[in-house]
Design goal:
Blueprint lengths: L1 H8 L3 H9 L3 H8 L5 H13 L3 E6 L7 H18 L8 E5 L11 H18 L4 E3 L7 H14 L4 E5 L5 H8 L5 E5 L14 H17 L3 E5 L3 H13 L8 E5 L4 H9 L3 E8 L4 H10 L1 H14 L1
Helix pairs in contact: 1-12, 5-6, 6-7, 8-9, 9-10, 12-13
Length: 308
């Protein structure tokens, strides 16, 4: 029951100040955040890909308040692309973007976000990689999927994320499971009302499997965003039944979580992509990671006690 409380705290400026000021916070945050700059994160990228894993990179930042901040977010991704170019990783190092950081929630934000993200997608294509559009709360879904559809007209490899806790997602999966599409399925990490989303974990889990079955049976490229051993086993079974080869879908996990499992899957020949986030605006991302899994929260609380 702590998950909804933590998700509410992720939007609280007061809690942001309290958590940020706690001496124990930074060492714990470092488990999930690769660095504060692209320079700090580059060695993590090299190390991760050097061990046979792939990566998707998120420059942290969301809920920006003016167009100038949106431009700064865009420029941060362009700097990331400049840093990736000499590594010559191609699609082994893609990027994940939150359109709220590109101005989606501002007046005229749909067009502003589309303009900013298009610049990033164009630059990514020049170095042989691509971008996946992260999904945020339910109010952004229509705009995000519309931007995704427009980007795919020029850059068909552009990916989208869908969240199984939303009632609408099964239908979205049917629409997205077309040839050439790349779709990351996650359970969802925002506090959503009962009018639009399942509230019980068991319901979210069942919805995830239904959505996964749709994606695996479709013509697109499913990206299984989960750390759940049961989900991973079911995904492998669904892929086998659909006649998919190991390079026709992939698993994705967060940096700092279940690293042994990441390496096990890669060793078995699966495509295994690590979601690596970096930047100074880490609070909202960090709190959602605590809310997602009791083990994450227990890790943080143990650290508080041991440091206290």
């Amino acid at each position: 029951m702590l998950g909804p409380v933590i998700l509410a705290a992720s939007r609280s400026d007061r809690m942001r100040r309290v958590v940020s000021a706690a001496p124990v916070t930074k060492p714990v945050v470092n488990r999930f955040i690769a660095g504060e700059s692209v320079e700090e994160t580059a060695p993590v990228i090299r190390s991760t890909t050097g061990r046979g894993l792939e990566v998707t990179l998120d420059v942290l930042g969301e809920d920006i308040t003016d167009p100038a901040e949106a431009m700064l977010a865009r420029d941060a991704y362009l700097r990331l692309i400049e840093a990736l170019a000499p590594m010559e990783l191609g699609a082994r190092a893609e990027m994940s973007v939150k359109l709220s950081s590109f101005g989606q929630a501002l007046p005229g934000g749909h067009d502003l976000a589309l303009k900013n993200v298009t610049t990033v997608v164009e630059a990514a294509a020049e170095i042989g990689t691509t971008v996946t559009l992260d999904m945020e709360d339910h109010t952004t879904v229509d705009s995000t999927l519309a931007i995704h559809a427009e980007l795919r007209e020029r850059f068909p490899e552009t990916g989208a994320v869908v969240q199984s806790y939303l009632f609408r997602t099964e239908e979205d999966c049917r629409a997205l499971a077309a040839a050439g599409s790349r779709v990351r399925l996650v359970k969802g990490a925002y506090k959503e009302p009962a009018s639009v989303a399942y509230q019980e974990k068991a319901e979210v889990d069942r919805a995830y499997i239904r959505c996964l079955a749709i994606l695996m049976a479709g013509s697109g490229y499913p990206m299984v965003g989960s750390h759940d051993p049961r989900v991973i086993a079911i995904a492998q079974d669904l892929a086998h039944r659909a006649g998919r080869k190991l390079d026709e879908y992939e698993f994705q996990m967060l940096y700092g979580i279940r690293e042994a499992e990441q390496h096990r899957l890669a060793a078995e020949g699966h495509r295994m992509r690590v979601y690596i986030a970096y930047g100074t605006d880490w609070y909202g991302y960090f709190m959602r990671r605590l809310a997602e899994r009791p083990a994450n929260l227990a890790f943080f609380l143990r650290s508080l006690v041991s440091r206290g």
